[in-house]
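Suppose you are handed a protein chain with no further information: no name, no annotation, nothing but its sequence. What can you learn? This example shows the usual starting point.
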Amino acid sequence: MAIWSRTAAVALAAALLAGALPAPAHAAGNGRWAVTPTPPANPGPAPRQYFFLESPPGQTVIDSVRVANLTDKPMTLRLYGADAFNTSSDGGFGLRPESERQQGIGAWTRLGLADVVVPAKRQADIPFTITVPANATPGDHVGGVVAAEAAPSGQLDSGGLAVGVTHAVAARVYLRVSGPTVPGLAVTELTADRAQLAYDLANTGNTHLLPDVAVTASGLFGHRVTAAGPGSRLDLVPGARTRLRAALAGVWPVDIVTTTVTVTAEGGVRATSSTTALVGVWPALAVLALLLAVAAVLLRRRRRARMPRPRGLA
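A reasonable first move is to predict its three-dimensional structure. Written in structure tokens, the prediction is:
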């Protein structure tokens, strides 16, 4: 660990003496600081936005992260590795805070410096390692290298209590461990009402996927119903399951709506599911039920009226 600390200190000093420029527009940043992969000595035409790494089990990957201070004052930031996850309600990509237990990238990552002070309008390149366990499962392990404020800079009023808010920025890490890769998606638990369609989307494989979601819908007698899918493209980590919703428009007050959700991803990955549901507002459904009941009574009476009456014996 001492060797890594000295190496990081040398890299940091070199970066600061170089008078680094602010991070490019594609960097992950919040306007105050940015975090990106350190460019290679001979960068290609497209700079790295994320870390895309590969390793067999039991090996160590070495790389470097660039932290840029975009403000006019020195900034102290805390660096750590974190596991990625998808939120359960909308599939948003997130990284677990340092206080939570890390099991993948977050547990395997070691940075040359845990805390770094970056002068105003400067940047620092911090080396780090990712040590892949010998028993690591094949496929993609997703996380990030995070640069967070050393102390909270804001407050949030929560039930009358002031809660400190710590801001953080990260560069995503996609590490593929050697071995068989089996991508997969699943769509389940479809439900629909007059306003929206809800369904579960799961990444059932061992690779991260960027699925395209297509939702189609039609009403009674095939009339047109429009459905709006997710507002942004998802980045699903292996094992993620999320509940998504699509707004429906054009549904009649009482309608029979058929909806189909189809998701596709690179490599021919595809999953689809459909559902048909009677939907409507409760007053309209009550009126419909009443009309059906009245129609049934009238039909029964009409049939009885047409039945031949038995004649008396002569």
